[in-house]
User: What shape does this take?
Amino acid sequence: MDDIVRKRALSGDMDALRAVTEKLIKRGNGRNENLAANMLTDAYNSMPSVGMNLGNQLLNGSDLFVKDRDIALAWMAFSGNKRFAPPPSSSDAPAADDSQDPAQDSSASTGQKGASAFRRIDPSPSIDPFQELNDLIGLKNVKDEITEQTSLMQFEAARKKSGLPASTPSAHFIFTGNPGTGKTTVARIVGGIFKKIGHLQSGHVIEVSIPDMIGQYVGETPQKVQAALQAAMGGVLFIDEAYGLLSSQSGGGDAYGEQAVTTILKFMEDNRNNITIIAAGYTDKMAKFLESNPGFKSRFSEIILFDDYTQNELYKIYLSYIGDQQYRVSDDATASLSKMMAEAPALFDKDFPNARFVRNLFEDTVKYMALRVMKEQAPSRDDLMTITAADLAQAYSEAQKNAKFKSAKGSGDDPEDSAKYGYQ
Assistant: This one.
């Protein structure tokens, strides 16, 4: 079966390419496993710079991935927009191996024949989710809220085990805040925590956006929603920009959004101990989402606000990227970086992208660093590692232009991307 999946990966099946690459992640170091998994998710979601980085790591081997030249070139081709041929059709595909665990087969994780696989993230057995939560930069109130809710669940479970009257605390959450404040990352950690305390069986996270749940023809929406919910059983369903369901309700006809809401609420009631649902998005729009249906307020009783990162936290996040990828900042660049992090929020009229801004700044810094270093005849190891003030200045200038463009056209509702190195 592995040979078949690999063949599909090299012929253009992105789900197969992701599945093969997951097996190339080096095991044994919990933090590195998390970094590798996040990088793979971003590359899979068509982030070219990340895909090229992933390809380079696979091409040469790294602390994160085992060397595999063919898979490396496949990611480079995909990330360079040289798309492969489409995946084999169901009529051409080989028969499934009945011995394979469907939960580990990304092509089977939707519960819908012919549908694209839902994004599934499984907790790493080598990572302590409580420590992972504690290690996140900033997010003090978020950590406190999750810890309090977990303690309550453990307390009630202990009472029940002792034969005492016990209630079942709500295990469904609303995450609100600007982009890049850690909502996706924390949702994944919650899955691991709830698995560890015995509330969820597997703790995996199924990440969906509105297009994954709203159908295009009569009767399709309940099927798509049910497939996502079933895929998340025993784990977490993370619905990004959940208020998109409301706009879908105004279309009339099949009332697709209303169908999705009804299906979700009924499933939550029928399976209250077998699934955790987290709905996330911008604070003001999530408030309207809660007000739109009385069932939301009664089921999503835990609302957690993700504040914007402070200057010092943004600075630390940038340094974490540097450390993870084995770069360093020159002395003259350090002061510049601190000043940039202080100025960054003012570049945006609203919806400051937080860690997403830092991530893009870091990637652009590396781009300008590469342009500078490759002009050298024989760059040293130190040259390949050291970011200068000039590299930062060029990257920040590009960030300023991008922020002005975003403000000029309106911020829109950019979907929450998958976590990048633990700070998305």
About this structure: The chain has three domains: 2-87, 129-306, 311-409. Residues 129-306 form a domain with the Rossmann fold fold (CATH 3.40.50.300). The first helix runs from residue 2 to 11. Strands lie at 119-121, 173-177, 205-208, 236-240, 276-281, 302-306, 328-329, 386-387.
